[in-house]
Amino acid sequence: MEETMRKILLAGIAVAMMATPALAANYRFVIVPKAMNNPFFDFARDGCEKRAKELGNIECIYKGPVEHEPATQAQIIQDFVTQKVDGLAISVADVAAMTKSIEAASAAGIPVITFDADAPGSKRIAYIGTNNKEFGLALGKQLLKLRPDGGKYAMVSGGPGAKNLAERVDGVREALKGSKWTEVSGSPTFCNDDPALAVQQMTDLRTATPDLAAIVPVGGWPMFAPEGFKAFASRYKKDIDSGKFTLVVADTLKMQLELLRDGYANALVGQRPFEMGEKAMDTLLAIKKGEKVPEIVYTGLDLVTKDNVAQMLK
Questions:
Q1: How far is the C-alpha of 125 from the C-alpha of 106, rounded, in Å?
Q2: What is the C-alpha separation between 305 and 181, in angstroms, rounded?
Q3: Range list of H helices, the chain
Q4: Of the candidates 308, 193, 202, the residue with the CA atom closest to the CA atom of residue 252
Q5: What is the dihedral of CA 125, 87, 39, 298, to 10 degrees?
Q6: pLDDT at position 314, please?
Q7: What is the mean pLDDT of each run of 10 residues along the chain (314 residues)?
Q8: What is the tens place of the pLDDT at every residue in 169-216?
Q9: Which residues contact 119 (CB under 8 A, 6 or more apart)?
Q10: Secondary structure of 184-225 in HEC code, one letter for each residue
Q11: H/E element holding 269?
Q12: Which ranges carry the Periplasmic binding protein domain (predicted)?
């Protein structure tokens, strides 16, 4: 009797082991951020994982450089090409470097899309994310609305090779063209997506130009170091409250909304990274099924001031 039971148990284990591959994902899709220490991309990861779970036959793999390092991002993509994953969604840190990586993946038969930051001259099939020129225009228009009297302003950007950030900078300049705002020399600074460096650069900009009337970070980096940002803004809180110094910042992560609510900034213009992650999975799956997909999918913007920040925090 004991021997019979042992055989039944062993047979059951064998069947379970044979069944396991059937439960595994049919497709392995990879989402590659510019930097994993940037909390913005955590939301793209969450959207990717949620949608993969809903679809049921997809594994969402999230991996990128720890910090903003285009060469490391290129190496990571090459590793995934070697592993023969089923699709890549890349936030492009450097257009020149990534165009080569995308070509290598495409040559290996791996479909590539971009999200958040595009490489339009590459062999990527689609881009999912923000209309970055409109994003920059929205930041500039928000500053103009808050301070039509103008003054000197500066911008903080991330990586100098990122096309999406260059488009935002152009958008801000276009929105302020012909107004009473003038951009200071040395703007924009490039923090390479480093929150602590972004805060330091804001401090340096204000020190170099004591009558600086506004700073516009075209990404949320300085606020991703909330205590550092709060320390910076606290030094100029009277000027912020009186309208002498204005901070209009990109992105609307929770810590940013809280800083705005508490009076450490004047306005935020936000993106929708969670949707980017979701739509990346939908798009890669459609490509694998042989379906035609739109080349450009814009995910929209959110304008936030003290008037609607409480609603955004709900």
A1: 10
A2: 21
A3: 2-23, 40-55, 70-83, 95-107, 132-146, 163-176, 195-208, 226-235, 237-242, 254-261, 273-288, 309-313
A4: 308
A5: 30
A6: 87
A7: 46 42 72 95 97 95 95 96 97 94 97 96 96 98 97 97 95 98 98 96 97 98 97 96 96 97 97 97 97 97 96 92
A8: 999 999 999 999 999 999 999 999 999 999 999 999 999 999 999 999
A9: 90, 92, 95, 98, 99, 102, 163
A10: CCCCCEECCCCHHHHHHHHHHHHHHCCCEEEEEECCCHHHHC
A11: strand 267-270
A12: 29-292
58, 87 in Cβ contact below 8 A? no
Provide the residue type at 282 as one letter.
D
Q: 58-62 and 27-32: which strand pairing?
A: parallel
CA torsion through residues 25, 49, 135, 97, sign: negative
Q: What are phi and psi of 27, to 5 degrees?
A: -130, 140
Distance CA 299, CA 128 (A): 7
30, 174, 179, 216 from 190: Cα distances, Å: 28, 20, 25, 13
Query: pTM for the full model?
Result: 0.85
How many Å is the maximal CA-CA distance in the chain?
Answer: 93
Query: How far is 296 from 293, CA to CA, in rounded Å?
Result: 9
Place of tokens 């881009």: 127
Distances (CA, A) of 57 to 126, 156, 162, 261: 22, 41, 33, 41
Contacts of 133 by beta carbon, 8 Å cutoff, 6+ apart:
167, 168, 170, 171, 174
| 245 in Cβ contact with 239 (< 8 Å) | yes
